[in-house]
Amino acid sequence: MKIRATALALAGLLALTACGGKTEEPAAAGPVSLRMTVWTSNEAHLKLFNEIAAAYRAEHPNVTEIKFDPIPFESYTTTLTTQIAGGNGPDLAWVLENAAPDFVSSGALVPLDGYDTSDLVPAATKLWQKDGKLVAYPFSTSPFGVFVNNDLLKAAGQPTAAELIAQGKWTWDNVIAAATAVNTKSGKAGLVVRDFDYKGWDNLSTVWAGWGAEAWSADGKTCGFNKPAMVEAMTFLHRAIFTGKALPGPGTTADFFAGDAGMTITQISRASLLKDGKFGWDLVPLPSGPKGNYAVIGQAGLGALKKGRNAKAAAEFLTYFTNAANSAKLAAYFPPPRKSQLNAETLAKTNPLLKPDQLQKVVVDGISTGVVKPSHSGQAEIAQAVRAALDPLWKADANVTAVLDGVCSSINPLLAK
Amino acid sequence: MTKKPFWTGRRRDHLAGYLFVAPQLLGSIVFVFVPLGLVFWYSLHEWNVLADTFDFVGAQNYQALADDPKLPGVLAATGLFSVGLVALNLSLALLLAVLLNQRLRGTIFFRTVFFSPVVVSLVAWTIVWGFLLQDNGGINGMLGAIGVDGPNWLRGETTAMVSVVVVQVVKNVGLNMVLFLAALQGVPANLYEAAKVDGAGRWRQFRTITVPLISPTILLTMIITVVGSLQIFAQIAVLTQGGPGTSTTVLVYYLYQQAFQFHHFGYGATLSVLLFAIVLVLTVVQWQLRKKWVFHES
Q1: Which of A371, A388, A405 is the last residue of a domain?
Q2: Do A85 and B244 lie within an 8 Å CB cutoff?
Q3: A212, A166: one domain
Q4: Using a CB-CB distance cutoff of 8 angstroms, which residues of chain A are in contact with residue B34?
Q5: Weakly modelled stretches of chain A, pLDDT under 70
Q6: How many domains are there within chain A?
Q7: Which residues form the signal peptide (chain A) (predicted)?
Q8: Model confidence over A231-277: pLDDT tens digits?
Q9: Under 8 Å between Cβ of A294 and A210
Q10: What does the alpha-carbon distance between residue A209 and residue A188 come to, in Å, rounded to a whole number?
């Protein structure tokens, strides 16, 4: 009995591994159904996607279905790769900038041969090319800005961000001073670096870039955490958190959009959360650091997966989904990488909550001058190593230099891979 | 020559037997044996999901396992968690069971109270505890009300581990409590009466009558709890993500990181094999030990 069971198990195993082998299916001429994984479940976003898809299907009757499949943002890349591992990957997928090097270099995406890139901003497509060929379209190039709760600032006796900017005093020192004042006066959080929460450290690049610091060198080989600029930036941040109480400490959460914080650093796409805002707010560029003005952008690309059953049809739909006309529609939520559309007038048509001045300063200027958030091949493992090594920093008596040295010794072997 | 019919009574009986066990057997093969075999198979490969490569590397992953500088810390965290959980869970469950086995008013109510977390969704339970354990959360709020300045539970290495253990114990202690209660009620009352006549005190009765008579149940709950403690995942994923530092990175969470976050599926499978071996050894050891201390086994 035991022997028979083992034999059966082995037979099943062999059958399964045989099924798991690579069986290339011929390009489907018959009915095609496509699935695109996304991390938004916003109804307005999905409605727009479905409208574009419906228009495409009207022109391509063989495409019977185009499904947009939302996956929660927190576990997006993990879920996506698990689906691919299980042989159940989507035909098209959004890819976050921190996963871009892995997706692009592994050859998992279909090269977008023949895509007209003449209108695309070179800075926006840099991350999404393999051997000089575009493999994913950066459909969202979203700069980080500072959302300000003017009511809380005024209540704390502080000048508003607009006033500071007008006086040329929109600097990190003044931002932290204002944030401390908000916390002292109202007990609410002063400044929240959104999605950082003492774990998502790559969001801190919106701070340290002002000191000219970087997580690693441009070629990805040298750790930047123990360089003088980073030590200075992190010392400033540590003091702001533990001495100034300008940022909520570890293990404390505060939501700016619910009115619980004076300021927050996040991407402009969050403006939609202020539709029913019950307080006076403003959106301004990141404050200037010791190295002057700077901008940081987050990116998301859209790629067609080579392993998908209908890779060719998927790439064709990608080209349509992101063409100039549709890009203008998508610009309502996702800042486009197209020169022709990157101007305050075009963006203002679709971003009713933001003023042309805000769009020009934060979005248009941000995209042309911004640095993209840190990304590296094998990012998930590096990110985890940095998070663990940075944990000792988030204590009042931390030795900043020693902790940052520790970060580098922890990730150097991974950067060298 | 008369041909013997194929379907003899004996063969019929065999067929019926096989048919009866078939659903269970099929389930075991598809959901237990095949995945088990596949994990061994994967552990001999380097599998890059994105590049779509699946290369045989022999024992390379096992060599990596032996050389992994993070593994000792992970195993230490796993051991610490298991020991803490098993000790706290079993002693608390036994204590509650003994208390709630008395004929007093309200025992039914308290039994329900202690059992109810068992039926709550694990992730929902953990998320709520995550809020309670925040620096400005409910636990520290209550401590503050009595003048105690509570620690930042999930951000300190020791307090994070204690938090995860306690959250898990409170969640599951009810199950072991019910098992112990059932066992306690199976202890014949006349043994206690006889002991009382002989002048045995409560502690003596507990030690020399209760514990030996419920020892099969203690063994059962111990095995279940040890195996369960080695498989903890959701609580870590929700509460600490293995931090601060790597202080709560237990084996299953490390396995998840390697396989699903870092895309080292081959190495993840190797870690699964290690976990399998650990669970197997511990279970066999406990089973063997039962001969030494489990009495009254039916």
Answers
A1: A371
A2: no
A3: yes
A4: 9, 12-13, 16
A5: 1-29, 350
A6: 2
A7: 1-20
A8: 999 999 999 999 999 999 998 888 999 999 999 999 887 777 887 77
A9: yes
A10: 26
Predicted complex ipTM:
0.82
Helix, coil or strand: residue B202: helix
Best of A201, A387, A407 to disrupt the B interface by mutation (most B CBs within 10 Å)?
Answer: A387
Side-chain-side CA neighbours of A210 within 13 Å: the count stands at 22
Domain B60-293, CATH number (from 1.10.260.40, 3.90.180.10, 3.80.10.10, 1.10.3720.10):
1.10.3720.10
Angstrom distances, CA of residue A105 to CA of A101, A108, A133? 6, 8, 11
CA A155 → CA A185, A281, B233, distances in Å? 8, 13, 45
Please give the Cα distance from B16 to B248 (Å, whole number): 51
Structure tokens at A262: 């004076």
Which residue in B has a C-alpha nearest to residue A17's C-alpha? B38
Nearest CB among B33, B51, B134 relative to A251 is that of: B134
The parent domain of residue A54 ranges over 31-142+298-371
Q: Where are the domains of chain B?
A: 60-293
Give the tens place of pLDDT for each residue, B71-109. 999 999 999 999 999 999 999 999 999 999 888 888 889
Chain B residues in contact with A106 (beta carbon < 8 A): 48, 50-51
